[in-house]
Write a structure and sequence with these properties.
mainly alpha
Length: 133
């Protein structure tokens, strides 16, 4: 007898991203092996003490890394792809139902980082990848 799959959208779903990402997935390995916490120290002086909370600088640099690895041409396309891929959401630390930053926020953040700070952080990330991956 021929089967027929009927899709019924659920209002609530219980999903744990870490259970859906294979152990050999690149972004799972990056999340496990690369320590991004040094970014907070290098960027702390660039942020004020009051006002609206900014995009987490670690999330910003992870987005930059995804853009580089996946060879993505625009921030808008980057966010669209991140919304669709469970491994990227897991790497970024976002749940499946959590809103990602706007593409304009990424562009704005990139413009606000001094070039030397941006390059220093990218270099340190690359060095960790070369050493640990």
């Amino acid at each position: 007898m021929q089967g027929k799959k009927n899709y019924e959208e659920k209002l609530f779903t219980s999903i744990q991203l870490s259970k859906r990402i294979p152990s050999n997935n690149l972004y799972r390995r990056l999340k496990k092996n690369i320590d991004f916490n040094f970014i907070y120290k290098l960027t702390k002086s660039l942020y004020g003490k009051r006002g609206k909370e900014s995009l987490d600088p670690i999330v910003f640099f992870k987005l930059c890394l995804i853009r580089k690895i996946e060879d993505i041409s625009s921030d808008r396309k980057l966010i669209t792809i991140c919304r669709l891929r469970l491994d990227l959401l897991y790497f970024l630390g976002y749940n499946i139902d959590e809103k990602l930053p706007a593409a304009t926020t990424i562009s704005h953040t990139r413009r606000n980082y001094p070039e030397d700070v941006f390059e220093n952080i990218c270099t340190q990330i690359d060095e960790q990848i070369n050493d640990k991956m």
